[in-house]
Design brief:
This protein is an alpha/beta fold. It is 52% helix and 12% strand. The protein is built from 11 helices and 7 strands. The strands form 2 sheets. Strands 5-4-3-6-7 form a 5-stranded mixed sheet, sandwiched between helices. Helix 1 crosses helix 3, helix 2 packs across helix 3 and helix 5 packs across helix 6. The termini are far apart. 19% of the residues are buried.
Length: 350
């Protein structure tokens, strides 16, 4: 119980016995008569309800005050505070196991699981009790180590490109076997535009470099590449490539996918929409006996093009995007004018 509430309750109790502190009022023949009258009169509880304590309770408060003063009127905490009376050790162990093995499992899902396997029923335990237990468990064991990461966005295009790879659909080749396909993508942080994407049988640096080369040829060189710590990204060849094209590479902290949330969100959209249709067709592209790899690559490009068009119509403020690209052009022309002015001054000195 919070200290402020405990003090309010003590003050309420004191207000009911305070007339006896200076002596028994004349209108009462005895203290027992006063206790009965005070109980019938009642008082306002700090929680807003009007209560009528029992005469014996008021008598006990008076005796405690006489013996130990105001602190004796403070409500005592439960001897088993911090533990649940409804959740026994066996049930507690089951809840801990379910939450540890399945961290995303909600309190409602855990409660249903406990009812299903016969560990408890809705007459013995409530869902809110399980929810309170899990909240206390999270506070005690600090089950999450996630850092506080706020939403951010770069001011201009080509400042940061985020790259990642994801498992794509299976492709049935001429030998009749299904092979796993990987999708490698680069997304611009400011505009959320997919600047580079393609499909491969292997997730490695060579294929990543192919996507980067195509993206740079179309959209120019970004100031910074943002990758995770996978072997395809964090290697000497990547640092050398970035140095040669005049860019830098930033590697995210391990186990922090939120640092490249935009490309992660893009892959989720891809799986929820495009890949969901493929899986529904038998987890093989168009359920054909054999599919050309270039056909799959073209299909991914078409999917990206359609998604970007829909994104522009529904989610982007086009005026803001025009301003972003205009800012890039303005900065470029400013640099050109500055170089021309410097060149002119040097020519005049000669």
């Amino acid at each position: 119980m919070k200290q402020e509430l405990a003090q309010d309750i003590a003050l309420m109790r004191y207000s009911m016995i305070s007339p006896l502190i200076v002596g028994l009022p004349d209108e009462y023949r005895s203290k027992e008569a006063y206790f009965r009258a005070a109980a019938a009169r009642g008082t306002l509880h700090p929680n807003g309800s009007f209560i009528h304590p029992a005469p014996t309770s008021i008598k006990r408060w008076y005796q405690h005050y006489q013996k130990n003063g105001f602190d004796a009127l403070l409500p005592s905490s439960r001897s088993d505070e911090g533990t649940s009376r409804k959740i026994d050790p066996d049930l507690e162990e089951q809840i801990r196991y379910l939450k540890t093995a399945y961290p995303r499992m909600s309190a409602a899902a855990i409660f249903r699981q406990l009812c299903t396997n016969g560990s408890t029923n809705r007459n013995e335990l409530s869902e809110s009790t399980v929810n309170r237990f899990l909240n206390n468990l999270a506070l005690k064991e600090k089950t999450t180590n996630n850092l506080d990461m706020r939403r951010y966005e770069r001011a201009h295009v080509n400042e940061v490109w985020c790259g990642d790879s994801s498992v794509g659909p299976y492709l049935k080749t001429e030998d009749g076997k299904k092979h796993k396909v990987y999708v490698i993508a680069l997304i611009d942080d400011a505009s959320r535009y997919i600047v580079g994407i393609d499909v491969f049988f292997n997730d490695n640096f060579v294929n990543l470099m192919s996507v980067m080369k195509s993206a740079v040829a179309k959209f120019g060189v970004p100031k910074l590449f943002n990758f995770d710590n996978g072997s395809s990204y964090k290697n000497k060849q990547m640092d050398l490539l970035a140095a040669r094209i005049g860019s830098t590479v930033h590697y995210d902290q391990p186990y922090t996918p939120t640092q490249k949330a935009k490309v992660e969100r893009w892959f989720r959209t891809m799986k929820d929409q495009w890949m969901a249709e493929i899986i529904a067709a038998g987890n093989v592209v168009r359920a054909a006996d054999k599919v050309d790899f270039q056909e799959l690559s073209d299909e991914v490009s078409h999917m990206v093009q359609m998604a970007m068009m829909a994104y522009d119509k529904k989610n982007l403020d086009l005026a803001d995007e025009v301003i972003k690209y205009d800012d890039v052009v303005d900065k470029l022309f400013c640099d050109i004018r500055r170089i021309m002015n410097v060149t002119a001054r040097r020519s005049a000195l000669i």
